[in-house]
Write a structure and sequence with these properties.
Strand 1, helix 1 and strand 2 form a beta-alpha-beta unit. The chain has two domains: 193 residues, Rossmann fold; 135 residues, Rossmann fold (3-Layer(aba) Sandwich). With 351 residues, it is of the alpha/beta class. The mean pLDDT is 95. It is built from 13 helices and eleven strands.
């Protein structure tokens, strides 16, 4: 019989899916996922279809979940790419969930919040680096602050504790994930090669040379479970990355070699615009190399590529706090990208 029962709101997202996949390999964990839509392929754990923005629906559907010991909160409100992430809606979703689950689950031990480096304003412009968990909050409010303040206040005088993870640039080997750096790089490279072009770097020169960090989805899952089961991490937040720093200028020649291309120069472009008319090229590549028939709209999320390759400043988080707490796993990010691109090739998602 399982020792723990994890409730994962947002289980179909990148982090939620990776966390459930990891926990499924751990015999002491039972998994219950929550999602607005039922997964097209049924996983080996229970998934409840629910919109947690609906408080009444939460109370009705979740009041029977009496054996929950851990909540891994990976949900977020949907929003357009051009709009700010809604603060009140994200806060209300967490509140609805806690109002439904906490009274019904007497054995609740821990609530974990998924955050990110936007906590430090990494998306707004140059910021203090390396970012530390003790850094003061920025002037502009965001939903991470609202959720953390809520859960910290809620946990007082309770038998359960909380923690929060702050990763950056999460990379998963699930080839079906569209919001993926390796997909952007791989599909972009395939199209440039088909057009007889070198592998030019599509971002800015300063971005090309700036420091950057990523985190492997499985490493993040392990870190989240560690934070949620160790007393040294109670009621605190932790940065999580692979543990190293990269510069695209150093990786780009390795990517060019991987795809059998000449290494190009910096050629700044907006991928969302430049790649908008390349569907016929992609369809030609798919046919020529007998790839999985992925529609061009799902081949790569070009605005995400622009988001990654545009900032002209370092993206850096200090991870010493998590190491001092006892979690010491790390991954070489350059090798991670080559592994992920190889995985895409093996799955016939790239030539």
């Amino acid at each position: 019989m399982a020792r723990y029962c994890a409730l994962i709101p947002g289980v179909t997202g990148v982090v939620g899916r990776g966390l459930a996949r990891y926990l499924a390999t751990q015999p002491e964990w039972e998994i219950i996922g929550l999602a607005r839509r039922t997964p097209s392929i049924q996983p080996q754990y229970r998934v409840i279809s629910i919109d947690i923005a609906d408080g009444a629906a939460c109370r009705s559907a979740l009041r029977a979940l009496r054996h929950i010991t851990h909540i891994f909160y990976c949900a977020r409100a949907t929003h357009s790419a051009s709009a700010k992430e809604p603060i009140e809606l994200n806060a209300a979703m967490l509140r609805n969930l806690m109002d439904a689950v906490e009274p019904a689950a007497p054995d609740l031990r821990h609530v974990h919040l998924l955050q990110g480096s936007k906590y430090y304003g990494s998306d707004l412009g140059p910021y203090k680096t390396p970012a530390k968990e003790s850094d003061p909050r920025i002037a502009e409010n965001n939903w991470y602050y609202e959720q953390q303040d809520f859960i910290a206040a809620r946990s007082r005088n309770r038998s359960w504790h909380w923690s929060a993870s702050r990763p950056h640039a999460i990379c998963d080997d699930d080839v079906s994930i569209v919001r993926s750096i390796q997909r952007v790089i791989g599909v972009y490279a395939a199209i440039m090669k088909e057009l007889g072009q070198p592998l030019h770097f599509p971002g800015t020169a300063r971005n090309f040379n700036a420091l950057y960090q990523c985190v492997d989805a499985t490493l993040l899952a392990k870190a989240i479970v560690f934070m949620s089961t160790h007393a040294a991490c109670e009621n605190q937040a932790f940065n999580v990355t692979n543990g190293d720093f990269i510069r695209w200028v150093n990786l780009w020649p390795r990517f060019a070699a991987f795809f059998g291309m000449d290494n190009g120069a910096v050629k700044t472009m907006r991928l969302a615009q430049t790649m908008a008319d390349k569907a016929p090229v992609w369809e030609r590549i798919v046919a020529k190399h007998a790839l999985q028939p992925t529609p061009y709209a799902e081949a790569a999320l070009w605005p995400y590529g622009d988001f990654v390759f545009t900032p002209e400043y370092d993206i850096m988080s200090d991870t010493l706090k998590l190491r001092r707490a006892g979690f010491n796993e790390c991954i070489d990010t350059e090798e991670m990208f080559l592994r992920l691109l190889t995985r895409m090739r093996e799955a016939r998602a790239l030539p």
